[in-house]
């Protein structure tokens, strides 16, 4: 019995929908977790706090969330920081912290120059990976590490520059990856690949604002004039002292006979 054209189109649409739904569900779920190892994040907040003053600070981050997990050791959680050029980190400091606290830090830049000013530096991405969830209810991850502010280019009518971090969604993000039948080793999946699942319902609660001194160029002419004046006076004084001091060629040497 042959089917009419309308029935064929209907069956084709139904089978296509079933096939597409199965493929998307399989690959989308397989990349993050399976039925035995899972982490489901319903909502949450990223709380940022900056300690200390001046150029050298401590960034403390706490992520509280409403989540479900199969086991604290089944999933790894990563914090991704998109830092602006005004901020830098010292890889040697991070290596020491990672050794003591059993977390891992990854920087997308191979080299971070700690001496260059902000206007000659580039933004960078830092990943903080924790392979065990905290043994605290509603706390997904908590960490702190040192950050440093770069020197700023001098400008007119300016004494401080505002460095704001965390006001955009992309500044701090939470990613996670759970064990699976084929991906029991998390480290084989780089952090910048699509295997890590973003916790899109976790947002920054409040951004942090820091202020860094900026050189004021309004008084630059007076500073240059006074500096050159002191240099000229110092040079004149040194030359005059050198000319007034007798040289060995002009000194009178007297020979006194020695009596035996």
Characterization of this structure:
A five-stranded mixed beta sheet has the order 4-7-2-1-11. A five-stranded antiparallel beta sheet has the order 5-6-3-9-10. The longest helix has 26 residues. Helices cover 24% and strands 33% of the residues. The protein is built from three helices and twelve strands; from the N terminus they run αββββαββββββββα. Belongs to the PIGX family. InterPro entries: PIG-X/PBN1, PIGX. Pathway: Glycolipid biosynthesis; glycosylphosphatidylinositol-anchor biosynthesis.
Structural class: alpha+beta
Span of the ends, CA to CA: 149 Å
Q: How many strands, which pairing sense, and closed or not: the largest β-sheet?
A: 5 strands, mixed
- Helix/strand order, N-terminal first: HEEEEHEEEEEEEEH
Radius of gyration: 33 Å
What portion of residues is helical? 10-25%
Could you tell me the mean pLDDT?
79
| Overall number of strands | 12
Count up the helices: 3
Strand line-up in the sheet with most strands:
4-7-2-1-11
Spans of at least 5 consecutive residues whose pLDDT stays below 50 are 20-32
Shape: elongated
β-strand percent reads 25-35%
Concise account of the structure shown:
Helices cover 24% and strands 33% of the residues.
Ordered list of secondary-structure elements with their pairings:
Layout: H1 5-30, E1 39-51, E2 56-69, E3 75-83, E4 87-88, H2 91-101, E5 104-107, E6 124-130, E7 139-149, E8 160-165, E9 172-178, E10 197-198, E11 202-206, E12 208-213, H3 220-244
Parallel strand pairs: 1-11
Antiparallel strand pairs: 1-2, 2-7, 3-6, 3-9, 4-7, 5-6, 8-12, 9-10
Membrane topology: Single-pass membrane protein
InterPro entries: PIG-X/PBN1, PIGX
Family: Belongs to the PIGX family.
């Amino acid at each position: 019995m042959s089917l009419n054209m309308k029935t064929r189109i209907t069956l084709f649409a139904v089978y296509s929908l079933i096939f597409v739904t199965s493929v998307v569900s399989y690959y989308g779920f397989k990349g993050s977790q399976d039925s035995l190892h899972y982490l489901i994040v319903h909502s949450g907040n990223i709380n940022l706090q900056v300690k200390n003053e001046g150029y050298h600070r401590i960034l403390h981050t706490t992520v509280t969330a409403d989540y479900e997990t199969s086991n604290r050791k089944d999933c790894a959680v990563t914090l991704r920081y998109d830092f602006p050029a005004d901020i830098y980190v010292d890889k040697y400091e991070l290596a020491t912290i990672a050794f003591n606290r059993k977390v891992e830090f990854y920087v997308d830049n191979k080299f971070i120059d700690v001496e260059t000013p902000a206007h000659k530096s580039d933004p960078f991405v830092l990943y903080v990976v924790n392979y065990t969830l905290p043994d605290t209810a509603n706390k997904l991850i908590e960490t702190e590490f040192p950050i440093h502010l770069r020197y700023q280019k001098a400008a007119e009518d300016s004494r401080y520059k505002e460095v704001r971090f965390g006001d955009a969604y992309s500044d701090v993000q939470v990613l996670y990856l759970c064990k699976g039948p084929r991906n029991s080793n998390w480290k084989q999946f780089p952090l910048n690949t699509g295997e890590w699942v973003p916790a899109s319902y976790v947002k920054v609660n409040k951004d942090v604002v820091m202020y860094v001194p900026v050189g004021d160029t309004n008084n630059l002419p007076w500073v240059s004039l006074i500096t050159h004046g002191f240099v000229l006076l110092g040079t004149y004084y040194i030359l005059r002292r050198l000319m007034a001091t007798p040289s060995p060629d002009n000194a009178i040497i007297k020979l006194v006979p020695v009596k035996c």
